[in-house]
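Incident log, structure service

09:12 report received: a user says their structure output differs between two submissions of the same chain.
09:20 pulled the input from the user's history:
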Amino acid sequence: MLLTGALGSGLLDLLSANRLTVRGPAGSDSIERFLADVLDAPRTLITMPVGPARANRKPVLQVTDLSGNVLAFAKIGHDDLTRALVDSEGRTLRRLGDAALRHIRVPRVIAHTQWRDLAVLVLEPLPVSARQERPGPARAGLLTAIAEISALSSWRGSWADNPFHVRLRAALAVAGPHGTDLLGVLDAVGRPDPAVALGSWHGDLNPGNVAIRHDQVLVWDWERFEDGVPLGFDLLHHDLQRAITVEGIAPAAAAEQLLTGATGLLGVLGLDRQAAQAAARLYLLTIAARYLGDNQERAGATLGRVADWILPALRSAPAAD
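09:34 re-ran on a clean worker, output below:
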């Protein structure tokens, strides 16, 4: 597939400020024709924005009719990582669609299928162009959404018996030299053995994929959703990403700020000082394990260089109570 090849080669990075039109022979098989059939639309147009370099970058196609009305968005998984993420999001959205969510609205799955060797997830567009609420109500809506997401699963017990602990340790154990360094931090979190409550998290809740509209919270990009993580991960992730991408704070400084402010930040979720400090450390360890496991640094992602920001922040943080 031409677009997938260009995406993987880095060619599209050179064209990010321009428009690239791809044409094939008349009547030839194409993703555009495939999506038109899925949507039962006589004619469609597709556009594809190009995001920053990262291992999980994939074509996300906006599908419109000839008048420019958005009919759907289609996510295309083109390698092992992106196919797994597209399929994971499809399963998650089916589950959420059956969950009778009160405050969150998620995209409806139109189709979760394959085209050639590509995973394809076709989603109904959300009305995200609506006016945002004022900061106060927006923060309240965000906290409401986080609470509803977290409640999708529940577990409470000691750190020694914690299934999340087992998963994280296994991920770091195969993450190379940096993973070995991070295992030492993980061991420190486990002393003394804190009681940790687990719930679900969106996995990538950031200011770019959540919007407040009246009494609803619109949330998309669910490919990293996971059950059984410490409470507070979504709020930690949202505020860290906001600090880096919106406020322009350097990643290392933002991570240090997150660790020092964890008690105040997570207090609104009912976490005490010990639980908040543990959650902040475990969150950064989880993100480091993800970036290392995905080879984000090799893909060119700035935040993929965990030795430049996550490791220093964790090493310089005061010892947990």
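09:41 both user submissions now match this output. Likely a transient worker issue. Closing.
09:42 reviewer note: Confidence is low (pLDDT under 50) at residues 1-9. The chain has twelve helices and eleven strands.
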